[in-house]
Amino acid sequence: MSVGNGSAGTDESALHAIQQAAKAGDVPRAAQLADEALRAGSMHPLLLNLSAVHLESQGRIEEAVSRLEAALRLTPRDPAVRNALAIDLGLLERWEASLANAEAAVELKPEFAAAHVNRGRALWALGRQAPAEASFRRALQLQPGNLMALAGLASVELRKGVLAEARRLAAQVLQAEPLFPDSVAVLAAADIAESKPADAEKRLKALLADARLAAPDRALDRAAAQGLLADALDARDQTKEAFAAYEAAGETLRAHYAKAYGAGLALKAARAHAKYFETSPAWGPRKPAQTRPAAGHVFVIGFPGASRADIVLGRHPLVERLSDQDLFRDFAGGADMERLAFAADAELQPARDAYWARARSAGASLEGKVFLDDDPLNTTRLPLIAALFPDAKVLFARRDPRDCVLAAFRRRQRIGPAAYELLTLQGAADFFVAAMELALRAGEKLGVRSHAMTFEALVADPVKEAKAVCAYIGLDWNDAPQTPANTRLDKPGAWKRYKAEMSPVLDMLRPWVERFGYKNEG
Fold first, then answer.
1. Which of 101, 275, 286, 341 has the lowest tally of Cβ within 10 angstroms?
2. In whole angstroms, what is the distance from residue 502 CA to residue 514 CA?
3. Is residue 83 included in any domain, yes or no?
4. Given a cut of 70, is residue 8 above it in pLDDT?
């Protein structure tokens, strides 16, 4: 905790009493005195810091952030305040702001191990694996045994597939802090990957039985454990129990994010845009964008659960791929189709610039590469793609709609307005239908040409499918390494194992099953 140097109208005797309580370890008493001093009009970084700690203990994170921001105005070069802000902004999932504060703390105090940890956590949440790993390793150099750094690095090693090292790091954490959620999750995921689902189930049930995980501020940890438990049960072919666990994870997340996304705006927008393109005239052809930092530009559309562009193109040396990143969120005109249809090129250029700036801030290296924007939810942004990037190529990831909807429902991803709709099976089916209707109608009116990248063809012959995709994009297959043979993919028809659970949505998916040429067995 930092006292700082700034103050305004602070009662020195009150400040002394607060400092003594804090030094004695009576933080609740110190926080109470700090709140009283703030209400009396005193202003000092120590008061604000202590008040923030008190608010954090009550789960009032937004108010804690306000206190810390006030402290920062008094002591703008205080690394401890910056680091505390990084932590609280992370709890609010405002990861870009969290990263900015963690990086400021590191710049102010390069030997500050906790700030490197929080920088790593923000980078990890933003999908920037390599710099996150570097931050965790630097934190461990500065403070060997830092549990948060060890836990973060265990998650990195798991993602890289280095299971033995992931296990070693997670075990270190659990030796010091039994039932630490992230590390239990790493061991459980490694168990599942190594065909030991019963071991994973045992670990996860012990974690979920921990009363601490029931607290409202542990919802994300609880949902992660429920989702992994579902995977473990699925691997044991206990589909009824697995489906119930997937539903439980979804409900936990729905309750957590209801305030932010419960209005269903993404589904409403997709349906409205699909309706617009029923009767709208065709949009006129647009000139290609005059400048583009990448050598090529490719969008993957379709639906979550259908795309495996990571297998087809993720290892190509001339491809720079970003997955599940909303690079369009700076464009405020996305909901106004008429404005988008008739916007002048100069009016659209700031949105293009913002898109490329976001790609770079997400860690993409663009020069000389074909940039692959691999976010199947871009299907609902097809009008934006056509308006802003008319020369971009489009890969349409296609899969049996029943497998696709089930996979999207089971898949855990960063929650936003669209991903929120996927947290129930019915919501996933509703959003699938709306997205496909929009893609079909908008594609015709916008003149969008695309290449179908079919999941089932990828399973049958990954090299043949990758060669076809490369040919469409204009890349030489000879530059691409061979597709890994041990990549784990669901078999076509995986939905049949959950046929009873999927029965409420099979009728609404049937027209798309037939349209895409799959056998109707619902």
1. 275
2. 17
3. no
4. no
Give the integer Cα–Cα distance in Å for 133 and 152.
Answer: 8
Region 241-268: mean pLDDT is: 96
Whether residue 12 is contained in a domain is answered as no
d(CA 107, CA 101): 10
Determine, yes or no, domain membership for 203: no
Structure tokens at 263: 């209005």
* pLDDT exceeds 90 at position 490: no
Residues in contact with 174: Cβ distance below 8 Å, sequence separation at least 6, in sequence order: 180, 183, 184, 187
Q: What is the CATH number of the domain that holds 405?
A: 3.40.50.300
Report, as an integer, the average pLDDT of 498-509. Answer: 97
Contact 73, 82 (CB under 8 A): no
Cβ proximity of 303 and 435 under 8 Å: yes
C-alpha distances (whole Å) from 237 to each of 63, 242, 355 are 46, 8, 43
* Amino acid identity at 515: R
Radius of gyration for the chain, computed over Cα atoms and rounded to the nearest angstrom: 25
Greatest alpha-carbon span in the chain: 80
The string of pLDDT tens digits covering residues 293-307 is 999 999 999 999 888
Which residues constitute the domain of residue 480?
267-515
Q: What percent of the chain has pLDDT over 70?
A: 94
Would residue 98 count as lying in a domain? Answer: no
Place of tokens 């409900």: 251
Question: Are β-strands 370-374 and 450-454 bridged in parallel, bridged antiparallel, or unpaired?
Answer: unpaired
Strand (E) or helix (H) holding 116: helix 113-125
CA distance 336 to 356: 22
Q: Is the pLDDT of residue 332 over 60?
A: no
The structure's pTM equals: 0.90
Q: What is the DSSP string of 192-253?
A: HHTT-HHHHHHHHHHHHT-GGGGSGGGHHHHHHHHHHHHHHHHHTT-HHHHHHHHHHHHHHH
Domain count, the chain: 1
Q: For residue 480, name the pLDDT band (cuts at 50, 70, 90).
A: low
132 or 343: whose pLDDT is higher? 132
Q: How far is CA 167 from CA 153, 172, 210, in A?
A: 11, 9, 21
Quickly tell me which residue has 């932010």 as its tokens: 260
Summarize the confidence of residues 109-116 as an average pLDDT.
98
**Residue range 461-473, pLDDT digits in tens:** 888 888 999 999 9
Is residue 366 exposed (0-12), middle (13-18) or buried (19+ Cβ within 10 Å)? middle
